[in-house]
Protein backbone atom coordinates (compact mmCIF):
# COMPACT_ATOMS: atom_id res chain seq x y z
CA UNK A 1 0.00 0.00 0.00
CA UNK A 2 1.43 3.36 -1.05
CA UNK A 3 0.25 6.95 -0.86
CA UNK A 4 -2.22 8.57 1.50
CA UNK A 5 -1.95 11.27 4.13
CA UNK A 6 -0.77 10.72 7.71
CA UNK A 7 -0.82 13.17 10.61
CA UNK A 8 1.34 12.49 13.65
CA UNK A 9 0.15 14.43 16.70
CA UNK A 10 3.26 15.04 18.83
CA UNK A 11 6.79 15.59 17.60
CA UNK A 12 9.03 14.14 20.30
CA UNK A 13 10.65 10.69 20.34
CA UNK A 14 7.61 8.64 19.28
CA UNK A 15 6.41 11.29 16.85
CA UNK A 16 9.70 11.54 15.00
CA UNK A 17 10.02 7.75 14.82
CA UNK A 18 6.49 7.38 13.40
CA UNK A 19 6.99 10.15 10.86
CA UNK A 20 10.13 8.46 9.56
CA UNK A 21 8.43 5.05 9.52
CA UNK A 22 5.46 6.43 7.54
CA UNK A 23 7.73 7.90 4.86
CA UNK A 24 9.73 4.67 4.59
CA UNK A 25 6.49 2.72 4.29
CA UNK A 26 5.32 4.81 1.33
CA UNK A 27 2.99 7.51 2.68
CA UNK A 28 2.29 10.26 0.17
CA UNK A 29 2.19 13.06 2.74
CA UNK A 30 3.25 13.10 6.40
CA UNK A 31 2.53 16.01 8.76
CA UNK A 32 3.84 16.27 12.34
CA UNK A 33 1.85 18.53 14.68
CA UNK A 34 3.89 19.54 17.73
CA UNK A 35 2.31 21.90 20.27
CA UNK A 36 5.64 23.17 21.66
CA UNK A 37 7.03 26.14 19.82
CA UNK A 38 10.50 26.11 21.39
CA UNK A 39 13.34 23.61 21.37
CA UNK A 40 12.21 20.14 22.37
CA UNK A 41 15.90 19.31 22.81
CA UNK A 42 15.82 21.30 26.05
CA UNK A 43 13.37 18.85 27.65
CA UNK A 44 14.18 15.98 29.94
CA UNK A 45 17.41 14.53 31.18
CA UNK A 46 18.53 10.90 31.15
CA UNK A 47 17.08 7.62 29.95
CA UNK A 48 18.42 4.15 29.25
CA UNK A 49 17.89 1.59 26.49
CA UNK A 50 18.69 -2.10 26.94
CA UNK A 51 21.47 -3.25 24.61
CA UNK A 52 19.31 -6.01 23.11
CA UNK A 53 16.43 -3.61 22.42
CA UNK A 54 18.88 -1.11 20.87
CA UNK A 55 20.31 -3.78 18.56
CA UNK A 56 16.82 -4.71 17.36
CA UNK A 57 15.88 -1.08 16.80
CA UNK A 58 19.08 -0.24 14.93
CA UNK A 59 18.55 -3.26 12.67
CA UNK A 60 14.98 -2.12 11.98
CA UNK A 61 16.09 1.43 11.16
CA UNK A 62 14.18 2.96 14.08
CA UNK A 63 17.26 4.03 16.08
CA UNK A 64 19.67 6.10 13.96
CA UNK A 65 23.39 5.49 14.30
CA UNK A 66 25.69 8.10 15.81
CA UNK A 67 23.49 9.35 18.67
CA UNK A 68 25.73 9.90 21.74
CA UNK A 69 25.30 7.18 24.38
CA UNK A 70 27.14 6.14 27.54
CA UNK A 71 27.81 2.46 28.15
CA UNK A 72 26.56 0.95 31.39
CA UNK A 73 27.51 -2.53 32.55
CA UNK A 74 26.36 -3.12 36.13
CA UNK A 75 24.03 -1.89 38.82
CA UNK A 76 25.25 -1.44 42.41
CA UNK A 77 22.74 -1.33 45.29
CA UNK A 78 24.03 0.57 48.34
CA UNK A 79 22.75 1.59 51.78
CA UNK A 80 23.90 4.20 54.25
CA UNK A 81 26.40 2.71 56.69
CA UNK A 82 28.87 4.98 58.47
CA UNK A 83 31.16 2.05 59.21
CA UNK A 84 31.46 1.31 55.49
CA UNK A 85 32.63 4.79 54.55
CA UNK A 86 31.26 7.79 52.68
CA UNK A 87 30.10 5.76 49.69
CA UNK A 88 27.85 3.50 51.73
CA UNK A 89 27.78 -0.29 51.90
CA UNK A 90 27.32 -2.39 48.80
CA UNK A 91 24.55 -4.94 49.39
CA UNK A 92 24.22 -6.36 45.87
CA UNK A 93 25.54 -5.97 42.34
CA UNK A 94 23.90 -7.17 39.13
CA UNK A 95 24.63 -7.00 35.40
CA UNK A 96 23.10 -3.96 33.68
CA UNK A 97 23.58 -4.17 29.87
CA UNK A 98 22.24 -0.74 28.91
CA UNK A 99 23.36 2.45 27.24
CA UNK A 100 22.23 5.79 28.67
CA UNK A 101 21.12 8.78 26.62
CA UNK A 102 20.40 12.45 27.10
CA UNK A 103 16.75 12.99 26.13
CA UNK A 104 17.55 16.07 24.09
CA UNK A 105 20.40 14.44 22.16
CA UNK A 106 18.29 11.36 21.45
CA UNK A 107 15.42 13.51 20.22
CA UNK A 108 17.80 15.58 18.10
CA UNK A 109 19.16 12.43 16.42
CA UNK A 110 15.64 11.20 15.68
CA UNK A 111 14.54 14.64 14.48
CA UNK A 112 17.50 14.92 12.11
CA UNK A 113 16.66 11.48 10.71
CA UNK A 114 13.11 12.56 9.79
CA UNK A 115 13.03 12.84 5.99
CA UNK A 116 12.85 16.36 4.61
CA UNK A 117 9.54 15.65 2.88
CA UNK A 118 7.81 15.59 6.27
CA UNK A 119 5.90 18.76 7.14
CA UNK A 120 7.01 19.24 10.76
CA UNK A 121 4.91 22.02 12.29
CA UNK A 122 5.78 23.44 15.72
CA UNK A 123 3.57 25.59 17.90
CA UNK A 124 0.44 23.82 16.62
CA UNK A 125 -1.95 22.68 19.37
CA UNK A 126 -4.45 19.96 18.52
CA UNK A 127 -7.75 20.30 20.38
CA UNK A 128 -9.31 17.01 19.32
CA UNK A 129 -9.56 14.30 16.68
CA UNK A 130 -12.28 12.08 15.27
CA UNK A 131 -12.57 9.20 12.85
CA UNK A 132 -15.62 9.04 10.63
CA UNK A 133 -16.48 8.57 7.00
CA UNK A 134 -13.36 6.63 6.13
CA UNK A 135 -10.94 9.33 7.28
CA UNK A 136 -9.66 11.09 10.41
CA UNK A 137 -10.22 14.71 11.34
CA UNK A 138 -7.93 16.98 13.37
CA UNK A 139 -9.31 20.08 15.11
CA UNK A 140 -6.86 22.82 16.01
CA UNK A 141 -7.00 24.87 19.19
CA UNK A 142 -6.74 28.12 17.28
CA UNK A 143 -9.55 27.14 14.94
CA UNK A 144 -9.54 25.19 11.72
CA UNK A 145 -9.65 21.54 10.79
CA UNK A 146 -7.80 19.15 8.48
CA UNK A 147 -8.59 15.63 7.34
CA UNK A 148 -6.13 12.77 6.86
CA UNK A 149 -6.27 9.12 5.94
CA UNK A 150 -4.68 8.22 9.28
CA UNK A 151 -3.85 10.04 12.52
CA UNK A 152 -1.19 8.79 14.96
CA UNK A 153 -1.44 9.90 18.57
CA UNK A 154 2.14 10.36 19.75
CA UNK A 155 1.11 13.16 22.07
CA UNK A 156 2.17 11.63 25.35
CA UNK A 157 0.65 11.54 28.80
CA UNK A 158 -2.16 14.05 28.12
CA UNK A 159 -3.06 12.64 24.71
CA UNK A 160 -6.06 14.15 22.96
CA UNK A 161 -5.98 11.27 20.47
CA UNK A 162 -6.32 8.76 23.32
CA UNK A 163 -9.63 10.31 24.31
CA UNK A 164 -11.00 9.56 20.84
CA UNK A 165 -9.69 5.96 20.83
CA UNK A 166 -10.56 5.11 24.43
CA UNK A 167 -12.89 7.74 25.95
CA UNK A 168 -12.36 8.35 29.64
CA UNK A 169 -9.01 6.55 29.87
CA UNK A 170 -6.66 8.59 32.03
CA UNK A 171 -3.41 7.90 33.92
CA UNK A 172 -3.68 7.08 37.64
CA UNK A 173 -1.44 8.66 40.27
CA UNK A 174 0.72 6.00 41.94
CA UNK A 175 0.93 7.75 45.33
CA UNK A 176 4.53 8.95 45.09
CA UNK A 177 6.76 11.22 43.04
CA UNK A 178 10.26 11.36 41.71
CA UNK A 179 12.73 14.16 42.15
CA UNK A 180 14.86 14.37 39.01
CA UNK A 181 18.07 16.20 38.30
CA UNK A 182 21.43 16.20 36.55
CA UNK A 183 24.77 17.94 36.90
CA UNK A 184 28.18 18.17 35.24
CA UNK A 185 30.09 14.93 35.93
CA UNK A 186 33.32 16.93 36.31
CA UNK A 187 31.99 18.23 39.63
CA UNK A 188 32.48 14.77 41.14
CA UNK A 189 36.23 15.30 40.93
CA UNK A 190 35.97 17.78 43.77
CA UNK A 191 34.39 15.28 46.19
CA UNK A 192 36.32 13.04 48.53
CA UNK A 193 35.93 9.39 47.54
CA UNK A 194 35.11 10.36 43.96
CA UNK A 195 32.88 8.09 41.91
CA UNK A 196 35.10 5.37 40.43
CA UNK A 197 32.30 3.46 38.70
CA UNK A 198 31.40 5.44 35.58
CA UNK A 199 30.12 2.28 33.89
CA UNK A 200 27.74 1.50 36.76
CA UNK A 201 24.30 2.54 37.88
CA UNK A 202 24.19 3.19 41.63
CA UNK A 203 20.89 2.65 43.44
CA UNK A 204 20.74 4.20 46.91
CA UNK A 205 18.20 2.31 49.07
CA UNK A 206 16.44 3.86 52.05
CA UNK A 207 13.16 3.34 53.96
CA UNK A 208 10.27 4.47 51.79
CA UNK A 209 12.21 5.07 48.62
CA UNK A 210 15.22 4.62 46.38
CA UNK A 211 17.36 6.69 44.04
CA UNK A 212 18.94 5.67 40.73
CA UNK A 213 22.14 7.50 39.69
CA UNK A 214 24.07 7.10 36.44
CA UNK A 215 26.09 9.01 33.87
CA UNK A 216 24.73 10.26 30.58
CA UNK A 217 26.26 12.11 27.63
CA UNK A 218 25.46 15.80 27.59
CA UNK A 219 25.58 18.61 25.04
CA UNK A 220 28.73 19.94 26.73
CA UNK A 221 30.23 16.75 28.15
CA UNK A 222 29.26 13.91 30.50
CA UNK A 223 26.62 14.55 33.15
CA UNK A 224 25.32 12.68 36.16
CA UNK A 225 21.60 11.93 36.02
CA UNK A 226 19.54 10.91 39.05
CA UNK A 227 15.95 9.92 39.80
CA UNK A 228 14.82 9.76 43.45
CA UNK A 229 11.50 8.06 44.25
CA UNK A 230 9.65 8.82 47.49
CA UNK A 231 6.32 10.06 48.81
CA UNK A 232 5.97 13.86 48.68
CA UNK A 233 5.68 15.88 51.87
CA UNK A 234 2.15 16.51 53.08
CA UNK A 235 0.74 19.81 51.94
CA UNK A 236 3.37 20.37 49.25
CA UNK A 237 0.79 21.79 46.88
CA UNK A 238 1.42 19.26 44.14
CA UNK A 239 -1.14 19.04 41.35
CA UNK A 240 -1.72 15.58 40.00
CA UNK A 241 -3.12 16.61 36.63
CA UNK A 242 0.26 17.24 35.02
CA UNK A 243 3.31 14.97 34.69
CA UNK A 244 5.67 17.75 35.76
CA UNK A 245 3.90 19.73 38.45
CA UNK A 246 7.06 21.61 39.39
CA UNK A 247 9.28 22.16 36.32
CA UNK A 248 13.03 22.74 36.48
CA UNK A 249 13.88 25.70 38.66
CA UNK A 250 10.45 25.93 40.31
CA UNK A 251 10.63 23.50 43.23
CA UNK A 252 9.82 25.97 45.96
CA UNK A 253 11.24 26.03 49.47
CA UNK A 254 9.15 23.18 50.90
CA UNK A 255 9.99 20.61 48.21
CA UNK A 256 13.62 21.69 48.04
CA UNK A 257 13.89 21.45 51.82
CA UNK A 258 12.30 17.99 51.85
CA UNK A 259 14.78 16.80 49.22
CA UNK A 260 17.70 18.21 51.20
CA UNK A 261 16.51 16.50 54.37
CA UNK A 262 16.21 13.16 52.55
CA UNK A 263 19.76 13.45 51.25
CA UNK A 264 21.15 14.32 54.66
CA UNK A 265 19.17 11.73 56.63
CA UNK A 266 19.04 8.69 54.34
CA UNK A 267 21.91 8.84 51.86
CA UNK A 268 25.51 7.73 52.22
CA UNK A 269 27.53 10.88 52.76
CA UNK A 270 29.22 10.82 49.36
CA UNK A 271 26.00 10.39 47.39
CA UNK A 272 24.14 12.99 49.43
CA UNK A 273 26.85 15.54 48.70
CA UNK A 274 26.93 14.50 45.04
CA UNK A 275 23.23 15.08 44.44
CA UNK A 276 23.44 18.37 46.31
CA UNK A 277 25.67 19.59 43.45
CA UNK A 278 22.57 19.82 41.24
CA UNK A 279 21.60 23.38 40.43
CA UNK A 280 17.99 24.39 41.22
CA UNK A 281 17.49 25.07 37.51
CA UNK A 282 18.24 21.38 36.83
CA UNK A 283 15.98 19.91 39.51
CA UNK A 284 12.27 19.13 39.24
CA UNK A 285 9.53 16.93 40.67
CA UNK A 286 7.41 14.55 38.61
CA UNK A 287 4.37 12.72 40.04
CA UNK A 288 4.36 9.04 39.02
CA UNK A 289 1.45 7.67 37.01
CA UNK A 290 0.50 4.58 35.06
CA UNK A 291 -2.11 3.60 32.50
CA UNK A 292 -2.86 0.82 30.04
CA UNK A 293 -5.04 1.88 27.12
CA UNK A 294 -6.93 -0.78 25.23
CA UNK A 295 -7.42 -0.74 22.34
CA UNK A 296 -4.36 1.00 20.90
CA UNK A 297 -6.12 1.70 17.61
CA UNK A 298 -9.64 2.38 16.39
CA UNK A 299 -11.05 3.56 13.07
CA UNK A 300 -8.30 5.60 11.46
CA UNK A 301 -6.55 6.43 14.75
CA UNK A 302 -3.45 4.84 16.33
CA UNK A 303 -1.81 5.42 19.72
CA UNK A 304 1.93 5.33 20.30
CA UNK A 305 4.39 5.69 23.16
CA UNK A 306 3.00 7.28 26.34
CA UNK A 307 -0.30 8.02 24.63
CA UNK A 308 -0.90 4.26 24.47
CA UNK A 309 0.47 3.29 27.88
CA UNK A 310 2.09 5.15 30.75
CA UNK A 311 4.68 3.00 32.51
CA UNK A 312 6.38 4.00 35.77
CA UNK A 313 10.05 4.77 35.02
CA UNK A 314 11.37 1.89 37.20
CA UNK A 315 11.08 -0.40 34.17
CA UNK A 316 13.48 1.64 32.00
CA UNK A 317 11.43 0.85 28.91
CA UNK A 318 9.73 4.06 27.73
CA UNK A 319 11.98 5.10 24.84
CA UNK A 320 12.42 1.54 23.61
CA UNK A 321 8.67 0.93 23.58
CA UNK A 322 8.01 4.12 21.60
CA UNK A 323 10.55 3.10 18.96
CA UNK A 324 9.18 -0.45 18.91
CA UNK A 325 5.70 0.97 18.30
CA UNK A 326 7.05 2.79 15.24
CA UNK A 327 8.78 -0.38 14.04
CA UNK A 328 5.54 -2.36 14.37
CA UNK A 329 3.70 0.41 12.52
CA UNK A 330 6.09 0.12 9.59
CA UNK A 331 5.73 -3.68 9.54
CA UNK A 332 1.93 -3.44 9.68
CA UNK A 333 1.94 -1.00 6.77
CA UNK A 334 4.17 -3.27 4.68
CA UNK A 335 1.73 -6.16 5.01
CA UNK A 336 -1.51 -4.17 4.61
CA UNK A 337 -3.62 -3.70 1.52
CA UNK A 338 -5.88 -1.07 3.08
CA UNK A 339 -6.03 1.38 5.96
CA UNK A 340 -8.36 -0.96 7.79
CA UNK A 341 -5.86 -3.82 7.50
CA UNK A 342 -3.05 -1.51 8.69
CA UNK A 343 -4.98 -0.44 11.79
CA UNK A 344 -5.98 -4.03 12.58
CA UNK A 345 -2.41 -5.31 12.19
CA UNK A 346 -1.03 -2.56 14.43
CA UNK A 347 -3.64 -3.30 17.07
CA UNK A 348 -2.79 -7.01 16.95
CA UNK A 349 0.93 -6.29 17.30
CA UNK A 350 0.88 -3.53 19.93
CA UNK A 351 -2.57 -3.58 21.54
CA UNK A 352 -1.37 -5.49 24.59
CA UNK A 353 2.25 -4.34 24.60
CA UNK A 354 1.85 -2.02 27.55
CA UNK A 355 -0.03 -4.41 29.84
CA UNK A 356 2.92 -6.47 31.06
CA UNK A 357 5.20 -3.43 31.21
CA UNK A 358 2.75 -1.58 33.45
CA UNK A 359 2.28 -4.63 35.68
CA UNK A 360 6.03 -5.12 36.10
CA UNK A 361 6.62 -1.43 36.82
CA UNK A 362 3.90 -1.52 39.47
CA UNK A 363 5.64 -4.44 41.18
CA UNK A 364 8.96 -2.59 41.02
CA UNK A 365 7.39 0.54 42.47
CA UNK A 366 5.72 -1.36 45.27
CA UNK A 367 8.97 -3.12 46.24
CA UNK A 368 11.30 -0.13 45.82
CA UNK A 369 9.11 2.72 47.13
CA UNK A 370 5.75 1.78 48.60
CA UNK A 371 6.73 -1.33 50.62
CA UNK A 372 10.51 -1.20 50.90
CA UNK A 373 12.28 -4.00 52.76
CA UNK A 374 14.90 -3.47 55.44
CA UNK A 375 17.68 -3.50 52.87
CA UNK A 376 20.45 -2.97 55.41
CA UNK A 377 19.68 -6.34 57.02
CA UNK A 378 19.62 -8.31 53.75
CA UNK A 379 22.41 -10.47 52.37
CA UNK A 380 23.32 -10.36 48.69
CA UNK A 381 21.44 -13.63 48.15
CA UNK A 382 18.37 -12.20 49.83
CA UNK A 383 18.47 -9.07 47.68
CA UNK A 384 18.82 -11.22 44.55
CA UNK A 385 15.77 -13.28 45.58
CA UNK A 386 13.85 -10.07 46.35
CA UNK A 387 14.67 -8.84 42.84
CA UNK A 388 13.47 -12.06 41.22
CA UNK A 389 10.25 -11.74 43.16
CA UNK A 390 9.63 -8.37 41.54
CA UNK A 391 10.28 -9.78 38.07
CA UNK A 392 7.77 -12.60 38.72
CA UNK A 393 8.94 -14.52 35.67
CA UNK A 394 9.68 -11.54 33.41
CA UNK A 395 13.02 -11.74 31.61
CA UNK A 396 14.16 -8.46 33.17
CA UNK A 397 13.66 -4.73 32.90
CA UNK A 398 14.22 -2.61 29.83
CA UNK A 399 11.23 -3.75 27.80
CA UNK A 400 10.26 -6.77 25.77
CA UNK A 401 11.82 -8.24 22.67
CA UNK A 402 9.98 -7.54 19.42
CA UNK A 403 8.03 -10.54 18.26
CA UNK A 404 9.36 -12.08 15.10
Features:
404 residues; alpha/beta; FAD/NAD(P)-binding domain; D-Amino Acid Oxidase, Chain A, domain 2; 2 domains; nine-stranded mixed β-sheet; six-stranded mixed β-sheet
Which value, in Å, is the CA radius of gyration? 21 Å
- How would you write the strand order of the largest sheet? 3-5-4-12-13-14-11-15-18
Give the averaged pLDDT, no decimals.
Answer: 93
Beta-strand portion reads 25-35%
Q: Which structural category do the helix and sheet elements fall into?
A: alpha/beta
Low-confidence runs of at least 5 consecutive residues: none
User: Can you tell me the CATH superfamily of the largest domain?
Assistant: FAD/NAD(P)-binding domain
Count of DSSP H/I helices: 10
As for the CATH topology of the largest domain, it is FAD/NAD(P)-binding domain
CATH class of the largest domain: Alpha Beta
Amino acid sequence: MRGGTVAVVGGSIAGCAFASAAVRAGAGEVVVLERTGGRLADRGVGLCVHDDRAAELVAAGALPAGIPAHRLERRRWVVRDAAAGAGGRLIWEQPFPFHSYHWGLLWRGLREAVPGVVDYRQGVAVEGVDAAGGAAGVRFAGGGRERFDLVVGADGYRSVVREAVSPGAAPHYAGYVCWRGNFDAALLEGLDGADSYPEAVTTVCFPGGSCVIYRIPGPDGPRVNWVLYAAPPAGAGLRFDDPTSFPPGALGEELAGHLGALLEREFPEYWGRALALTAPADTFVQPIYDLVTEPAAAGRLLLAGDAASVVRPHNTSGAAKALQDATAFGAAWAGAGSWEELVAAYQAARGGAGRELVALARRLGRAQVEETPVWARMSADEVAAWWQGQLAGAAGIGGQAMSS
